[in-house]
Design brief:
The protein is mostly helical and 50 residues long. 38% of the residues lie in helices and 0% in strands.
């Protein structure tokens, strides 16, 4: 993961990047603690063969 962070740090950052990060990951966000296992249903066939 450190390698990915290094790559990301080499790109120039503009105001659009800053707004994207602010909207996607608020600075004080903490993931909630799950109550236990949960049910998940995924609907879809996936990518079509190319």
């Amino acid at each position: 993961m450190a390698r990915e962070q290094t790559k990301a740090a080499t790109f120039p950052v503009d105001r659009n990047d800053v707004e994207l990060v602010r909207g996607a990951h608020p600075p004080h966000w903490k993931n909630p603690t799950p109550d236990g296992p949960y049910n998940l249903v995924v609907i879809g066939a996936g990518p079509l063969p190319g």
